[in-house]
Design brief:
Number of helices: 6
Order of helices and strands: EHEEHEHEHEEHEHEEE
CATH topology: DHBP synthase
Shape: globular
Strand content: 15-25%
Helix content: 25-40%
CATH architecture: Alpha-Beta Complex
Distance between the termini: 51 Å
Structural class: alpha/beta
């Protein structure tokens, strides 16, 4: 049965954040709030935890996983970007965007989109994931918490616990997040492509 932490959405309790990080480092899968919707997360290099997320979401092999990073300082390790793309990212982060970028060899192959060799990257503007990421010291492998057959992500922490208490190790209750996922922007070509319109102003990525 999963653990359930009520974490303050503006001033996360250090004790609970450290306990959550210990669960992640022990191979656990957690549900946590973001500045868009709730998400599933696990340690980047843990194959078994990644496969658990695949099963929960019923994801296909070509799904673009997302690396949730604390800031752009981790960008060069996991993605290849030129100066123009970096300027766009710097302007739009932190925020409710997921960017599709060319993955580097430091990203585990099982997380890379197999045909295009891409990875999603996200820098959330929410105190709880930021606290988790700073304490963890590396990105989280993440996916939006939308269950198979559902049109919208799960948003109520108590409903999440009830539905997933045997599938995840920890549910972090950070209050209501909302139902709208991030906007997804593909930055692997010379012209940005808006793959999904969600939260966030995408006007900077639109070509007149």
């Amino acid at each position: 049965m999963s653990q359930f932490f009520a974490v303050h959405p503006e001033t996360p309790q250090v004790r609970l954040i450290n306990q959550a990080v210990a669960i992640i480092q022990g191979g656990g899968v957690l549900v946590y709030p973001t500045d868009s919707a709730y998400a599933l997360g696990c340690q980047l290099g843990n194959k078994r935890a990644v496969e658990r997320i695949r099963r929960i979401r019923a994801l296909q092999d070509d799904h673009n996983f997302t690396l949730v990073c604390r800031d752009l300082s981790e960008l060069g390790t996991y993605a290849r970007v030129d100066n123009a793309v970096y300027r766009l990212l710097r302007h739009a982060t932190p925020g409710p965007f997921t960017f599709i970028l060319e993955a580097t060899r430091d990203v585990p192959k099982r997380l890379v989109q197999p045909k295009r060799k891409t990875i999603g990257l996200r820098v959330p503007n929410h105190p709880i994931p930021q606290a988790l990421l700073h304490a963890l010291g590396e990105p989280l492998m993440s996916a939006t918490l939308a269950l198979p057959g559902d049109d919208l992500p799960l948003s109520d922490p108590y409903d999440i616990r009830q539905q997933l208490e045997h599938d995840v190790d920890l549910v972090i209750d950070g209050g209501f997040c909302g139902l709208e996922p991030t906007s997804v922007i593909d930055l692997t070509t010379s012209v940005p492509a808006i793959l999904r319109r969600g939260l966030g102003d995408v006007s900077d990525f639109e070509i007149a």
